[in-house]
Design goal:
The strands form two sheets. A five-stranded antiparallel β-sheet has the order 1-4-9-6-7, with no helix packed on it. Strands 2-3-10-5-8 form a five-stranded antiparallel β-sheet, with no helix packed on it. It contains two helices and ten strands; from the N terminus they run αββββββββββα. α1 packs antiparallel against α2.
């Protein structure tokens, strides 16, 4: 084994480590562009409101004017659903995994249901009664308002709302770790209301490939050490020949 091959082996091992802990797969997870760059915002036709990027400085929801708590970890902007009547709103972004493995998912959210009632009837506001928020991981080809169980890989929140007696609710951080196969997925924030006002706020969304397990790191270190030992043996043989 030449020294060049040894270096190549070391570089490959640590390159694998770098891939195993990739950066955030979500674009514009904090909405600090001031818009939905990287995201797809969808409004069910006939809805009376919108899902939009707004500023923390406002202190209230942009359409109905309900109070919104500040977020100590927030920047300038965040996403929120708001309305003047019934509707359904979805915010999605796709991400792709080149190989199977653990994925860490994190987001901050509040779900303020001013109606004081939760009804899980899916994500079509024309189905009454219906009042809920949900966060889930969908298959890559799933539609924005799908209710098909085959499209839902994992549900991360709800369907439901935060404490119905404390509006406005504080921002809460949610963390999940999933084992996912290689492929394309979507993270979805969806809110449906036809019983009363409902605001779903979203900020600081991230999806990252999980770091290798300690055993994996140990195997990598042993592999690199083995390369070094082989190089030393080869040099010793060359010197005694």
């Amino acid at each position: 084994m030449t020294f060049a091959k040894y270096l190549a082996g070391v570089s490959l091992a640590f390159a694998v480590a770098g891939v195993a802990h990739a950066g955030n797969l979500i674009v514009n997870g904090g909405f600090e562009t001031g818009d939905y760059t990287g995201w797809t915002a969808s409004v069910q036709p006939g809805s009376s409101g919108n899902v939009q990027v707004t500023t923390y400085a406002a202190g209230v929801s942009p359409i109905s004017g309900f109070p919104v708590q500040p977020n100590p970890a927030g920047g300038t902007f965040y996403s929120i659903t708001d309305q003047s009547g019934p509707g359904s709103y979805s915010l999605t972004q796709s991400f792709t995994l080149a190989s199977a493995g653990k994925v860490d998912i994190s987001f901050q959210m509040f779900a303020n249901d001013q109606a004081g009632v939760i009804v899980d009837a899916g994500h079509d506001y024309t189905v009454s009664p219906n009042e809920n928020a949900e966060v889930d991981i969908l298959t890559g080809a799933a539609a924005a308002f799908t209710d098909n169980p085959a499209d839902v890989v994992s549900t991360l929140y709800g369907p439901g709302a935060d404490n119905l007696n404390t509006n406005p609710n504080p921002w809460t951080t949610y963390n999940s770790t999933l084992d996912l196969a290689a492929g394309t997925y979507q993270i979805r924030f969806v809110e449906t209301d036809n019983q009363g006002f409902f605001q779903q706020g979203v900020d600081n969304v991230s999806v990252t490939a999980a770091a290798p397990e300690p055993a994996t790191w140990a195997m990598m270190v042993l592999g690199v050490a083995g390369l070094g030992a082989a190089l030393r043996r080869q040099r010793q043989v060359a010197l005694t020949a």
